[in-house]
Every structure is written in structure tokens, then in C-alpha cells.
Amino acid sequence: MEPLASRIRPQTVDEVVGQEHLVGAGKPLRVAIEKKHKFSFILWGPPGTGKTTIARIYARALDAALFELSAVSAGKDDIRKIIAADTSGKEKVLFLDEIHRFNKSQQDFLLPYVESGELTLIGATTENPSFEVIAPLLSRCRVFVLEPLSEEALRAIVKSTKLKVKKDAFDWLMGYANGDARKALGMMEGAQSLYGEVSVDTLNQALESPHLRYDKKGEEHYDTISAFIKSMRASQADAAMYYLARMVEAGEDPIFIARRMVVFASEDIGLAQPTALVVANAVFRACETIGYPECAINLAHGVAYLAQAKKDRSSYDALRAAQADVQTFGNLPVPKKIRNAPTKLMKDLGYHEGYEMYGDSESYLPDKLKKKKYLK
């Protein structure tokens, strides 16, 4: 049976609840939908706030052929199939969910089709597109920011289901959903289908039900790994251990967990405790060679270490800042002083001239960036 969230999904812009700054009277997305204005855009916001709904309403307004892909599993071949598809003259709109999971090569591949107008792109992301979408593609898209749904909007959506929900259960759902309509609707549907009513007791029981929780390809998968990482980042070892236990009990791939720990060791601990990367890699290797159930002990060992380690994101922030300059300025000329000089001509042109192996105080950055400090 189709999930409740899909069954009550708005079909027109007038039915959308929330996001008034985008779809209210005279606001940009409403105007674009009403005037059938064709352009590519990215919807940036938390889960369950209407990104898919808005994309479908927009494509329907254009009378376009809508293709939906998730960047988690899609690749270049999927884009090729869409380009080759016969749509009987209809415009092609691609809704690419989690666009931030498309790597640079995949985004580069997509770019010319968006640039030429062969595809109208609607990207959806929970991550800042400034860091996750390549500059040429981002420059060809407008970015619209969606906000977590207000309590008023959530209550309106919950009431539209016609399910009987007690007042205290309403309050429970508001706190649990945290602005995410899909989350609230999923819990309501689970409580109703498992226990026949939506009350605080049935919602709490449904929360722990193995029939509901942890779809390894769905939202619970990403919610739990997100909570796991954020708990380690906050040095909350107990919370991190709890979310680890949830993933282990659900049968999450230990390699997936360990891989995220290796990334965390450099991204969040970095220079504060360089041995963290050694530990994380050792845990990854243990998971590869031992497997469940024993490798859960290795994971717990690594989590305890990483969560309690000092944190320093300076190397990660430096990389992102440098990447932003590369995307903004392109390949700036390398100072002649540090260029390679394998030929006489290059030496005559001043390549490598004045280079000192140690102790040179002059910046080796390109001239345009001489005063930049990435590591702070």
C-alpha cells in the first residue's frame, strides 16, 4: 500500500502547506509555476519539508516529462537513458534527489545538458549547495531555501489525514518530527497500523518497533548515521555508542559505519589528535577481516576513542576554503619561483629562479591569493 505521506501529497501549489516565502502569493516559485517559467533550480532544506512535492507540481505545471532519480544510486547511464528517452516533444525535467551525493565527475557530465536546456534540472539537497555542487552547475541554477515546517503547518498536515489523534499525541508528534512532515506521518501511520490508534503510548511503542524502524536504504538509515556522527562531534560518547548499537542491531553494514569513522577522524579530529586516523583505519580493517558479530566490539572501541578525542576541523575547513577559491578563480598561474624547470628555456624564463628549499618566507600561493590564510 502507498505510504500515507504519498497518499496525501499536495497536487497543486494551492494545496502546499508551509514554505509561504516560496509558494505564497507573489512569491518566486508560485509565480514560476503559474507563469510556466522554465528554469533549473535547487531546493535546499531539511527532510520532509516539501522538496519532492514542489518539484512534481512544477513539472506538472510545465506539462513536462518528469524523471526522478536519487543521486545515492543513480549514475551517468541513468542520465544517458533520460536524454535518449522519447517524450513526444515534451520538455524533460530531471528531479535529482540528494544532488550533493553526485560526485564532481557526474555533475560535470550533467552540466552540458542543463546548459543547453535539454534537461531542466531540479536538485534537492539537505547540504549547503555552495560546497556540494560544482560552481558551473550551481551558476546555472537558482537556489531556493526551504525551512523546517512550523508547528502550525505540521498540525494542519496531520489533521488532513483524518486519523484520530489525541491532543497529547499531537504534542508528541510535534516534538518528534522537528519540522519534518514525512517523519510525523510515518509515525502516525505506523502507530495506527500496528496498534489501531494514534496515542502517546502507541507512538512510543511504534518508535521501538522493529517492523517500523531502520530501513537501510531509507531515511532512518541517514537519520541514525547523522545522529551518530553528530554525537561523536559533540564528544557525547554515550549517545554515539547508543546510535552505534542501533545500527549494529539493525544489521547495518559495518564497513559503512567504519568508513564514516575514517572520514570523521580527519574531518572533525584532524590535527588535534592525528592518531585518530590510525585508530579509525584499524577499525575499518578489523571490520573487513572479522565481520559480525565480533567486529561490533572493534567499532565500539573506535567510537569510544573518536568521541572522546579533542576536535579540530582546521584542515577540513582549509580544504573547503581552498576549493572555493579554485572554483572561483580557476587555475591561477603558479609563481615562477616554484615551477618545474627541466629545460634551459624554462630556466631562461625564470622558472625555479630564487627557490630556497627551506626557510623561504615568501608565499608560494598565486599572486591573486598571496594574503590568503586557509589554515587558521
What does this structure look like?
The chain is of the alpha/beta class and 376 residues long. The protein folds into four domains: 4-145, Rossmann fold; 151-207, Helicase, Ruva Protein, domain 3; 219-308, Zinc Finger, Delta Prime, domain 3, CATH 1.20.272.10; 333-376, no CATH class. It is built from 19 helices and five strands. The chain has a five-stranded parallel beta sheet, sandwiched between helices. Helix 10 packs across helix 11.
Topology:
Layout: H1 4-7, H2 20-23, H3 28-34, E1 41-44, H4 51-61, E2 65-70, H5 76-84, E3 92-97, H6 104-116, E4 120-125, H7 129-132, H8 135-138, E5 142-145, H9 151-159, H10 167-177, H11 181-195, H12 200-207, H13 219-233, H14 237-249, H15 254-269, H16 275-290, H17 295-308, H18 314-329, H19 344-348
Parallel strand pairs: 1-4, 1-5, 2-3, 3-4
Helix pairs in contact: 10-11, 11-12, 13-14, 14-17, 15-16, 15-17, 16-17
Short description:
This protein has 376 residues and is α/β, with parallel strands linked by helices. The chain has helices at residues 4-7, 20-23, 28-34, 51-61, 76-84, 104-116, 129-132, 135-138, 151-159, 167-177, 181-195, 200-207, 219-233, 237-249, 254-269, 275-290, 295-308, 314-329, 344-348, and strands spanning 41-44, 65-70, 92-97, 120-125, 142-145.
List keywords for this structure.
Rossmann fold; 376 residues; 52% helix; five-stranded parallel β-sheet; Helicase, Ruva Protein, domain 3; 4 domains; 19 helices; alpha/beta
Helix content: 40-55%
Strand content: 5-15%
CATH topology of the largest domain: Rossmann fold
Biggest beta sheet summary: 5 strands, parallel
